[in-house]
Amino acid sequence: MDIRAEFRLPTQELRDDLPFYTKTLKMRLDMIYPADDPEVAVLSGHGLRLRIEKGAPEAPGTLRILTDDPDGFADGARELIAPNGTRIEIDELNPPLVMPATEHAFVVRRLADQAPWVIGRAGMEYRDLVPSRLGGAMIASHIRVPDGPVPDMVHFHKVGFQLIFCINGWVDVLYEDQGGPRRLHAGDCFIQPPTIRHKVLHAADGIEVIEIGVPAEHVTEIDHTMELPTPHQRPGREWEGQRFVHSVGSDGVFKPFRIPGFKARDTTINDNTKGVASVMVARPSGQDVPVWTRHHGDILFNFVMSGTMLLEGEGKEPYRLEKGDAFVIPPRMATRYSEPSDDLQLLEVTLPGQFNTEVLQTL
User: Fold this and answer.
1) FRET label pair with 99: which of 19, 26, 46, 57, CA 20 to 30 Å apart?
2) Rg (CA), the chain
3) For the whole model, what pTM was predicted?
4) Model confidence over 61-96: pLDDT tens digits?
């Protein structure tokens, strides 16, 4: 393919730059002129074409080179300054996913507080449900998608865990190796394993979803080569040990929950992520008086999908919660879910998927 674009960098003395760019940065010299007193050199390498020009008006700028072997490139230096003043950063082409330690906190985020909605990727609106991100350990977003076709591209996320739970409307999504479009209705959810390619197609009926991502900061990459749907269906395929899940809410069976006085339906996510996370939908059983409990997991997130309740926390003022509210309970903090309405439904996401819950006789 012909290269028809290049970056221009300034220099005061071209002869000082050539050894650095060709030997240290391992770029190829493609053009130099005039012969008697060169003022312009064109080099290529690392998927980039550079034009170094004597007296060019631009600032020297920063050049980032990504490589599979940063320690073996430029004698292991991670930062260099070229003779023309350009700053060079050497970094990993595929850096490992960093999972920050959780900064535990008791968090309550109420819809009535009118946290701002911001425009994010593909024109979707995002509302942050955990502003602290628990120190970068997770992000929880309430997302609205305008009705109609979504201007999305085939993409994937470099992430440790990602949940899409539909709370209103419906949305059609294509997933790698999962056949044709999957329609997500209210009460349904997807688990998007790390790096699975997918594309949002169409949204309708005031679509709203809750998206949980671990860690909070993760990369989204566009895949310009894959076409969806892929020709083969492989429902049992794993991506970094996790399987794709399409949990249909209407198929769920409610069973006794870890908190007395409630029952819950399992989305099978604990099994399909091999214990990375669990996603449950809980509601009152109407049989027991709410009790104080204390969990020993890492992250426990809840979103109120319908109804109302009183959230009591050890040493905290009670919070009256309603549809659209979210809360996080840190480990070893005693809490009680009191005065639940008959139509209360809680979306509970926990990491890891299984942990011990204490039922306390008294606070």
Assistant:
1) 46
2) 26
3) 0.87
4) 999 999 999 999 999 999 999 999 999 999 998 888
